[in-house]
Write a structure and sequence with these properties.
Length: 111
């Protein structure tokens, strides 16, 4: 298993976890871009949003729900979700992940 986020989901690489269950794991980003910056990943390996199939709709919807719930538990009502697909969009880890950023003014459009 060479995928770093599969290793995180499997507990082989320690991270600061905010939430986990049988389907998803939420953990703080190694290189935070906001006062609150965490990732939510499905335990199932999906290379990115372009790899989602109809059978993953429930799982990826859960990723969004958990992202919002963890943000709320961390005391944030305002937050941004980001999902990158492909290197030009900034994807560096090819396992689907939701970025959740909060705690500072976030510009639009993003850079
Ligand atoms: P992206 O560029 O969208 O593929 O985001 C990948 C994010 O993953 C990036 O913000 C840094 C984070 N990251 C990469 N490796 C690790 C790790 O080993 N631990 C943690 N906590 N975050 C990681």
């Amino acid at each position: 298993m060479s995928c770093i986020f599969c290793k995180i989901a499997g507990g082989e690489i320690p991270v600061a976890k905010l939430y986990e269950d049988e389907d998803v794991v939420a953990f703080r980003d190694l290189n935070p871009q906001a006062p609150l910056h965490f990732l939510v990943i499905p335990r199932k390996h999906l290379a990115g949003p372009a790899a989602i199939t109809a059978e993953d709709e429930r799982l990826t919807g859960k990723v969004l729900r958990v992202g919002a719930e963890v943000a709320r538990k961390e005391g944030r009502s305002d937050f941004r979700f980001v999902v990158n697909n492909g290197p030009q969009a900034g994807q560096t880890v090819f396992h689907f992940h939701l970025h959740v950023l909060a705690g500072r003014d976030l510009t639009w459009p993003p850079g």
